[in-house]
């Protein structure tokens, strides 16, 4: 890659996993909870 704009996300996510930073997982969880929508059911399941 010649610049940061040319990089894909795969190396970034891999490096975060190596550093045990699960940032990508948290973003995915928030999106899933928003799409699900029934917050009370999620609270009971948790």
Structure in words:
- With 46 residues, the protein is mainly alpha-helical.
- The protein has one domain.
- Helices cover 67% and strands 0% of the residues.
- The protein has 3 helices and no strands.
- The longest helix is centred in the middle third of the chain and has 14 residues.
- The termini are far apart.
- The mean pLDDT is 74.
Comma- or semicolon-separated keywords:
about 45 residues; about 65% helix; about 0% strand
Oligomer: single chain
How do the helices and strands follow one another from N- to C-terminus?
A: HHH
Number of helical regions: 3
What portion of residues belong to β-strands?
under 5%
User: Strand pairing plus helix content: what structural class?
Assistant: mainly alpha
Distance between the termini: 42 Å
The overall strand count is: 0
Which blocks of ≥5 consecutive residues have pLDDT under 50?
A: none
Largest sheet: none
């Amino acid at each position: 890659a010649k610049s940061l704009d040319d990089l894909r996300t795969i190396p970034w996510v891999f490096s975060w996993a190596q550093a045990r930073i699960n940032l990508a997982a948290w973003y995915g969880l928030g999106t899933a909870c928003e799409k699900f929508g029934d917050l009370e059911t999620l609270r009971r399941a948790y």
